[in-house]
Structures are given as structure tokens and as C-alpha cells.
UniProtKB/TrEMBL annotation:
Annotated region (Disordered), positions in chain: 1-25
Protein name as it appears in the record: ZF-HD dimerization-type domain-containing protein
Database matches in InterPro entries: ZF_HD_homeobox_Cys/His_dimer
Domain ZF-HD dimerization-type intervals: 32-81
Protein species of origin: Oryza meyeriana var. granulata
Length: 100
């Protein structure tokens, strides 16, 4: 076991980010990346929570789907990024891992 080992299993961020339903229709995938919510705005500072990628708290179509499971912020606080992917439908049905 070296330090080079890629520990994908330990990172819950790798999948379960977007909605599988929305992914099938178009070739565009919208991802929500770094959280940009300024937690120190009320005191005149600037501090983000360091969340790297939006991860839905619940299933698509529910209110929880708009909240980040990692930092708890609304999805709109996360930087929006549109990707055009022709073929990336590999992990459609692995939706069970994100919940606690
Ligand atoms: Zn956040």
C-alpha cells in the first residue's frame, strides 16, 4: 500500500452530483462546483466554507436536492459550470451512496 493509491472509495464526491434524469436528455451536463457563499459577509469579511463541489442532499425533485450535502448551502451558491459531454452515462443508478 503506497501513498499513490487512488482512494476513490473514500470520496463521496465522485458521483451522485447531478440528476441522472437530466443527464440523459441532452449532452449538456450542468455541474455545480466550488461553494462561493461568503460566510463572513455580515462582518465585512470574506470567508468561504471550502466546499469543492455541490452534492445534493436528497433526490432530484425534492427540496433537499437543492441543498449541498457537504456544506449545507443552497445550490445557487455554488459556481455553475456547463459541460458538454457526449458519452458519460456510466454511473446512472448509483444514487444510494450519498444519503445518511
Ligand atoms: Zn457552502
Amino acid at each position: 500500500m503506497g501513498p499513490q493509491q487512488d482512494r476513490l472509495a473514500a470520496k463521496p464526491y465522485t458521483n451522485g452530483t447531478a440528476a441522472p434524469a437530466a443527464r440523459r436528455k441532452e449532452n449538456k451536463v450542468v455541474r455545480y462546483k466550488e461553494c462561493q457563499r461568503n460566510h463572513a459577509a455580515s462582518i465585512g469579511g470574506h470567508a468561504v466554507d471550502g466546499c469543492r463541489e455541490f452534492m445534493a442532499s436528497g433526490a432530484e425533485g425534492t427540496a433537499a436536492a437543492l441543498l449541498c450535502a457537504a456544506c449545507g448551502c443552497h445550490r445557487s451558491f455554488h459556481r455553475r459550470e456547463v459541460e458538454a459531454t457526449a458519452e458519460c452515462d456510466c454511473s446512472s443508478d448509483t444514487s444510494s451512496g450519498a444519503r445518511r
